[in-house]
């Protein structure tokens, strides 16, 4: 079985054609066996396989099984698996290269990646949502956060996202997320349940292999971007297995990248129905002059097929007769902030202008005014005029 393992390593060395794979295997075995080429072609048909997948493929070959007693290795091939990048990402072919790139020792990379989940590199905070369920915020500690930001800036930011994605993407926001649905006859809002924990550790490792990284490097990169919460902290089983932590710099970008197929399928479904589709993290929005009663079932089926669960309690079909809200914005006629939120902020500013700023912070009020201005310019200017009359201590 050692020979099969080394032959699998030869297949995985990064060549792109059957002839190159056959040449490398022939160099190792010392003879150009006829069964090598069809076996190489079946290997190349696999989608970014792990070594164990290639070993499984080789073991299923009847020709290799018959030849195995007579085979011997005439030259051991020790070259590392080569990069086969799909995007313009840094070339990292070995664990030593990864450690050098991160300015760490290989043992430090292994400790921080924590593939065996023996250490804890996160701070945990439990938040109770309005429906009684618990959301776990997992914030990486300082050293790991620095490494995750390097992975984000040097690798993940170079990979394009789907045009329908508006969350955590430069130049996009809740405004661009909601704008396509303003003034539409009907708006459908759906919510994906347990969004970040849904992305498992193996799924993230698979992404890094798809990006072109050799298996050992991809496994460590995946480990650096995922975690498993201790049993005493995890609110449910989904947090106890390796997953994307909500609170890590890399998690939003990885979630968007791994949702690419979901976004493609939902965009196709919307276009086929004469509707529009956008997504902001776990919020899905559809709109158009159609009846979404059956449509939402098809959308939920696609989400389920892609490994997600839809929170049906948050699913809403909103027609023009009711307030249509997406990500906290009203979309009935034009994009706007809710009247209640505007009136509340206006009352606070008016009170501050008459009685003094009190405990209100200048930067917080300015931020809220700037947000209103970005959505509705004239309303924002009215608020700013009141703000300018405030006497700050």
Write structural notes for this entry.
With 393 residues, this protein is an alpha+beta fold. Helix content is 46%, strand content 11%. It has 18 helices and 9 strands. The chain has helices at 2-11, 18-29, 36-44, 51-59, 62-67, 95-101, 106-113, 142-154, 174-178, 195-198, 201-210, 215-225, 251-258, 260-273, 295-305, 339-355, 362-375, 377-387; strands at 122-128, 134-140, 186-193, 276-280, 283-288, 309-310, 316-319, 325-326, 329-330. Strands 3, 4, 5, 6 and 7 form a 5-stranded antiparallel sheet that branches. Strand 4 (276-280) and strand 5 form a beta hairpin. The longest helix has 17 residues, at 339-355. The chain is elongated. It starts with a helix and ends in a 6-residue tail after the last helix. 33% of the residues are buried. The mean pLDDT is 90.
Order of helices and strands: HHHHHHHEEHHEHHHHHEEHEEEEHHH
Q: State the major sheet.
A: 5 strands, antiparallel
* Termini Cα gap: 78 Å
By helix and strand content, what is the structural category?
Answer: alpha+beta
- Average pLDDT for all residues: 90
Low-confidence stretches: none
How large, in whole angstroms, is the Cα Rg?
27 Å
Q: Looking at the structure, what is the overall shape?
A: elongated
Indicate the percent of residues in helices. Answer: 40-55%
Strand content: 5-15%
* Number of distinct helices: 18
Number of strands: 9
Assembly type of the shown chains? single chain
């Amino acid at each position: 079985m050692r020979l099969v393992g080394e032959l699998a390593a030869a297949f995985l060395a990064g060549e792109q054609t059957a002839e190159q794979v056959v040449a490398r295997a022939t160099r190792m075995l010392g003879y150009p066996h006829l069964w090598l080429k069809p076996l190489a072609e079946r290997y190349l048909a696999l989608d970014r396989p792990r070594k164990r997948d290639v070993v499984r493929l080789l073991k299923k070959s009847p020709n290799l099984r018959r030849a195995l007693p007579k085979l011997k290795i005439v030259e051991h091939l020790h070259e590392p698996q080569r990069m086969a990048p799909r995007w313009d990402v840094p070339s990292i072919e070995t664990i030593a290269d990864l450690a050098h790139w991160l300015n760490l020792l290989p043992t430090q990379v292994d400790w921080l990646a924590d593939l065996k989940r023996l250490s804890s590199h996160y701070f945990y905070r439990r938040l109770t949502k309005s429906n009684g369920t618990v959301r776990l915020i997992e914030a990486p500690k300082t050293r790991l956060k620095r490494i995750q930001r390097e992975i984000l800036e040097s690798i993940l930011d170079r990979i394009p996202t789907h045009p329908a994605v508006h969350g955590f993407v430069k130049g996009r926001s809740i405004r661009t997320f909601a704008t396509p649905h303003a003034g539409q006859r009907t708006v459908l809002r759906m919510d994906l349940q347990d969004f970040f924990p849904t992305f498992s550790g193996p799924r993230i490792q698979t992404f890094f292999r798809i990006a072109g990284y050799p298996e050992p490097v991809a496994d460590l990169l995946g480990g650096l971007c995922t975690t498993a919460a201790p049993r005493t902290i995890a609110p449910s089983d989904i947090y106890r297995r390796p997953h994307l932590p909500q609170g890590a710099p890399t998690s939003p970008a990885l979630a968007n990248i791994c949702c690419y197929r979901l976004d493609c399928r939902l965009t196709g479904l919307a276009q086929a129905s004469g509707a529009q589709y956008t997504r902001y993290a776990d919020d899905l929005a559809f709109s158009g002059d159609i009846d979404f009663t059956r449509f939402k079932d098809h959308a939920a089926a696609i989400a389920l097929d892609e490994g997600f669960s839809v929170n049906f309690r948050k699913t809403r079909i909103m027609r023009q007769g009711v307030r249509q809200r997406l990500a906290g914005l009203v979309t009935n006629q034009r994009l706007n902030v809710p009247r209640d939120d505007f009136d509340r902020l206006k009352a606070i500013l008016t009170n501050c202008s008459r009685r003094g700023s009190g405990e209100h912070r200048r930067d917080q009020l300015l931020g809220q005014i700037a947000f209103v201005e970005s959505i509705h310019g004239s309303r924002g200017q009215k608020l700013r005029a009141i703000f300018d009359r405030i006497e700050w201590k």
